[in-house]
Design a protein that fits this description.
The chain is α+β, with helices and mostly antiparallel strands. Helix content is about 40%, strand content about 20%.
Length: about 80
């Protein structure tokens, strides 16, 4: 089994199982990558500083990065269909 460490963006008050379900599509290997996935590519402009403005708007709503570990499931990938 292999693992990949990274971050998701979720509301800080959500329980872990809710945070994983709601934030799994934001998974990134860095917190910045997770924020970019959460905000969308057009809003993720690190050159102009828009990224920090967008992040702060979500932080004000009590959202932030959460460390997660993704595991591969060898049994499923080897299963016959």
């Amino acid at each position: 089994m292999a693992e990949l460490r990274g971050y998701i963006i979720s509301a800080n008050h959500w329980a872990d199982n809710i945070a994983l379900r709601m934030g799994c599509w934001t998974f990134g290997t860095t917190a910045t990558e997770a924020w970019c996935r959460h905000l969308g590519a057009k809003k993720c402009d690190t050159i102009t500083g828009d990224l920090s403005k967008q992040m702060n708007a979500w932080v004000d709503k009590n959202y932030g990065p959460r460390k997660v570990i993704m595991h591969t499931d060898q049994e499923r990938s080897d299963a016959k269909r």
